[in-house]
Amino acid sequence: MTVDGLVLVDAKLVTVRRRNDPFRGMPALPGGFVELGETTLEAVVREVREETGLETRMVRLVGVFSDPDRDPRGHTVSIAYALEAIGGRLKAGSDAAAIILVDPDEPPKMAFDHNAIVRKWRGP
Amino acid sequence: MTVDGLVLVDAKLVTVRRRNDPFRGMPALPGGFVELGETTLEAVVREVREETGLETRMVRLVGVFSDPDRDPRGHTVSIAYALEAIGGRLKAGSDAAAIILVDPDEPPKMAFDHNAIVRKWRGP
């Protein structure tokens, strides 16, 4: 199980350029695997901190994304949360080659099903 | 990862009396483990069908419940969905000793953290 975070900074969506395969070099939402003994909310706040330097808190649950084909490595389910930044400063972490701020309404092609997650977050 | 379904029949919440430990004999929301290759939504519709005989469709995502202590067998995360019955008829399946229809606003003590799930579903 994985988590992904949607955070705006200066009205731009925070994404990270993937350092590793799959989807190496593409922008992705910050996120990663839930560790044993943590809640999904703790996991997304930790992953966003590690990958972007931002301290965040949850605004709302965006959705559960569980299409078996969403990750070429195998069947993962991602829980996506909208977060707001409450501290820290943007700095790419070890899994991320760079931070990329994108237009949330017209994002570039992203890794996994992250474009679908962004569409769900922005709403109809 | 597990899924749980919240379904009303005649304005009562459909629960199943657990046949097995943990929480044997207690009412629980119908649900169970997500199988490889199915979406969480497919899983909850399947589990509700197997345990209650009802055909359902999703109304909305209620929440993600991931407290590490929610299941004494180990760390599970449950995705809870509100569903509506669209067919079938109530009949206890193999994992359930009986169907119990409960007052959704004053349910009895339930297995796992299912009372918390019901509270979240009913709202503030």
Describe this entry's structure for a reader.
Two copies of one chain form a homodimer. With 124 residues, chain A is of the alpha+beta class. Chain A is 18% helix and 40% strand. Chain A is built from two helices and seven strands. Chain A has helices spanning 40-52, 114-122, and strands at residues 2-9, 12-18, 27-28, 31-33, 54-65, 78-88, 96-102. In chain A, strands 1, 2, 3, 4, 5, 6 and 7 form a seven-stranded mixed β-sheet that branches. In chain A, a hairpin with a 2-residue loop joins strand 1 and strand 2 (12-18). The first copy, chain A, is globular. Chain A starts with a strand and ends with a helix. Chain A binds chain B through residues 1, 34, 36-41, 61, 63-64, 66-68, 75, 77, 79, and chain B through 1, 34, 36-41, 61, 63-64, 66-68, 75, 77, 79.
List the helices and strands and how they pair.
The structure is a homodimer of 124-residue chains.
Chain A: E1 2-9, E2 12-18, E3 27-28, E4 31-33, H1 40-52, E5 54-65, E6 78-88, E7 96-102, H2 114-122
Parallel strand pairs in A: 1-6
Antiparallel strand pairs in A: 1-2, 1-4, 2-3, 2-7, 5-6
